[in-house]
Specification:
Radius of gyration: 39 Å
Mean pLDDT: 82
CATH class of the largest domain: Alpha Beta
Structural class: alpha/beta
Largest sheet: 5 strands, mixed
Shape: elongated
Number of domains: 4
Low-confidence stretches: 1-19
Strand content: 5-15%
CATH topology of the largest domain: Nucleotidyltransferase, domain 5
Strand order of the largest sheet: 5-4-3-6-7
Oligomer: single chain
CATH architecture of the largest domain: 2-Layer Sandwich
């Protein structure tokens, strides 16, 4: 239009306010097309709030040919309608369902792959973020079929990934997961697992030690779970034999086992460690270090043990090694004033001498190998300390949480004596967790 001053002003609308020219807002043509084509619901709410009702009405009633190139807007509208039709098409839905059927078939094929579920669980943050990003296009239930996880599992993942709670060690919502361990309990597990004296113990022995010390009140499975979360997830592979039938005893001094194991120090010397142990309690009754397999060493261990523990009768189990089958050993046993029976494993009896063989591995792998031992003198000192720890400090699962010393001296093999406070601690844990002010749950 033409102003009184002869100035030409373009499509921008203007008003005279106190003698000044006030420009109106110029709207993008695409915004106008949204209203003309009836697609304004797709515009951001904040943008629509800035548009006057007058403009909205005018744009809705503008003729289609007002703007040059309006055919493009028509084409866009057709594309949108096409997308809508695809979403409503039964054929398209069947195609999508066919893809999910392929996913289901794949899951059946790979379901036996070891560690697959664990891998998905470890990547739960990625899974949650991906599903949340596509849930506007694919339903959550359909998306879960791709990962083969349940809705409950997904909600647990989501609660741990999205809802961070400062009162939890792992930032898990304490109200959604009230039974999770308290920060102090998780810290206790971490402290025991990282303790230099227990660093090479089995997990179950560390767990029993913490329970034995009244420092921890949770189940063994919970302990294993948090060990994995804390990164203490090494496992030892154990091979089980289907026809394996171990010997069973019912009291201390019923059966003693003897064996010898070889340990090589850093100076290149081989040392033959002779052990004598009580089968029932697994107590090390004595040990000797020699430069070779020695029948005299076995006799010495038997003599000291019989004098100290005074068994009423004696069964001795050994393998067929020369240190066990010789005139020294047989002469000593025959000279005892009590009834004695010497059995050779897998010869006189069907079972093996596995109990003391397991002891050999424990002593070497959990006590000796982790240390740099350079000489016989150093080996003697470390072995003395190790035997004391094994006998009196390190609890064993097979002994119900007792140490060998406790079991040998009459403490019943009954793990319930150590878990008497578990239910009480669980109630305290749940109460404390539910009282925490988790912002996501307020």
């Amino acid at each position: 239009m033409q102003s009184s001053a002869g100035l030409h002003i373009s499509n921008t609308h203007c008003n005279l306010v106190d003698g000044n020219v006030a420009k109106r807002k110029s709207w993008d043509t695409n915004v106008k097309h949204y209203y003309r084509l009836g697609l304004e619901d797709n515009l951001p709410v904040s943008l629509k709030a800035l548009i006057s009702n007058t403009n909205k009405y005018r744009w809705r009633h503008e003729p289609e040919a007002k703007y040059t190139g309006c055919e493009v807007a028509t084409f866009v509208n057709q594309e949108i309608e096409f997308i809508k039709r695809i979403g409503q098409s039964s054929k398209t839905q069947k195609t999508i369902e066919a893809y999910f059927k392929l996913c289901d078939t794949l899951h059946i094929i790979i379901s036996n792959i070891k560690g697959l579920k664990t891998t998905i669980k470890e990547q739960k943050e990625l899974v949650v973020n991906t599903i949340e990003s596509v849930k506007g296009y694919i339903s959550i239930d359909n998306a879960l079929r791709v990962f083969n996880i349940s809705r409950t599992t997904y909600q647990n993942y989501k609660a741990r990934v999205i809802y961070k709670c400062e009162a939890s060690y792992y930032k898990w919502c304490t109200k959604r997961f009230p039974n999770q361990l308290l920060v102090s309990e998780v810290t206790t597990i971490k402290r025991y697992m990282a303790h230099k004296d227990y660093l090479f113990w089995s997990k179950v022995s560390v767990y029993l030690k913490a329970v034995h010390d009244d420092a921890l009140s949770c189940s063994l499975s919970t302990f294993y779970k948090y060990c994995m979360l804390l990164g203490f997830n090494t496992k030892r592979l154990k091979k089980k034999y289907l026809n394996y039938k171990p010997v069973k005893t019912e009291k201390p001094n019923e059966l003693w086992c003897a064996d010898v194991t070889i340990f090589k120090t850093a100076d290149g010397s081989k040392h033959y460690i002779h052990f004598l142990m009580d089968h029932f309690s697994k107590l090390i009754l004595g040990y000797r270090i020699e430069n070779h397999n020695s029948g005299k060493a076995i006799v010495s261990l038997l003599r000291e043990a019989t004098l100290k523990y005074k068994p009423n009768a004696l069964q001795l189990l050994t393998d067929g090694g020369a240190e066990n089958i010789n005139t020294n050993v047989s002469g000593f046993l025959n000279g005892l004033a009590i009834e004695v029976k010497h059995n050779i494993a897998q010869k006189d009896v069907l079972y093996s001498n596995s109990t003391i063989e397991a002891l050999n591995k424990v002593i070497k792998y959990q006590f000796l190998f982790p240390k740099q031992i350079y000489s016989r003198t150093q080996l003697l000192n470390i072995l003395e300390e190790s035997v004391t720890t094994y006998n009196k400090i390190k609890p064993q699962k097979s002994l119900g949480g007792n140490t060998p010393f406790e079991t040998f001296n009459g403490v019943p093999i009954n793990f319930s004596t150590y878990i008497i406070h578990f239910k009480q601690q669980k109630a305290i844990r749940i109460l404390q967790n539910t009282k925490n002010a988790c912002k996501q749950c307020l």
